[in-house]
């Protein structure tokens, strides 16, 4: 075989293998069970559930930390709770109604969703801060906005081509 052709084939193989490793390493969520996570994290999620059904748990990498996120379902609704390996509460997200959020948040969401539809609204508590995540569908776009209690948009992400991530 031609040495140049062999080099190209080897390079292509290494490139594909490397890309596969990067894709695997950057996969954020890995499903886990309560009995397979550190005991303090399991105890914290069980305590947070407080009678709610734990529908699923995922292990995620947040920077250099490993965290565990559980989806909890009860009569009151659905919550997502994230704890670290030591069982410390990292964040909590729960679905809320538009009427339950502060007026400045409602006004911002009404402005951003004009001519569209509010698909999902969550109250997010993380790091001592409260924000609201709104998933909005208009004719042309699907957008998630993160709104501070003051009504200021602190983050915006186009989710048009990513219907499963919300």
Question: Could you please describe the fold and organization of this structure?
Answer:
The chain is built from three helices and nine strands, in the order αβαββββαββββ. Strands 1-2-3-4-5-6-7-8-9 form a nine-stranded antiparallel beta sheet, with helices on one face. Strand 8 and strand 9 form a beta hairpin.
- Computed Rg: 21 Å
What topology, given as strand order, has the largest sheet?
A: 1-2-3-4-5-6-7-8-9
Q: Architecture of the largest domain in CATH? A: Roll
Proportion of helical residues = 25-40%
Report the order of strands and helices.
Answer: HEHEEEEHEEEE
Total separate domains: 2
Q: Work out the number of β strands.
A: 9
Report the structural category: alpha+beta
User: What's the helix count?
Assistant: 3
Strand content: 35-45%
Topology of this protein?
Blueprint: H1 3-25, E1 29-32, H2 39-49, E2 53-62, E3 65-74, E4 77-84, E5 89-95, H3 103-112, E6 117-126, E7 129-137, E8 142-147, E9 153-158
Antiparallel strand pairs: 1-2, 2-3, 3-4, 4-5, 5-6, 6-7, 7-8, 8-9
């Amino acid at each position: 075989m031609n040495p140049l052709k062999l080099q190209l084939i080897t390079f292509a193989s290494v490139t594909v293998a490397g890309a596969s490793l990067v894709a695997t390493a950057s996969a954020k969520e890995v499903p886990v069970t309560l009995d397979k996570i550190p005991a303090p994290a399991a105890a914290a999620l069980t305590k947070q559930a407080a009678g709610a059904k734990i529908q699923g748990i995922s292990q995620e990498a947040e920077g250099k930390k490993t965290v565990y996120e559980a989806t909890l379902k009860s009569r009151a609704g659905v919550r997502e709770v994230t704890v670290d390996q030591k069982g410390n509460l990292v964040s909590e997200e729960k679905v809320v109604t538009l009427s339950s959020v502060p007026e400045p948040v409602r006004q911002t969401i009404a402005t951003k969703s004009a001519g569209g539809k509010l698909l999902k609204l969550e109250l997010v508590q993380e790091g001592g801060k409260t924000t609201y995540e709104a998933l909005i569908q208009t004719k042309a776009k699907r957008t998630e906005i993160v709104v501070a209690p003051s009504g200021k948009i602190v983050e915006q992400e186009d989710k048009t081509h990513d219907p499963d991530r919300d």
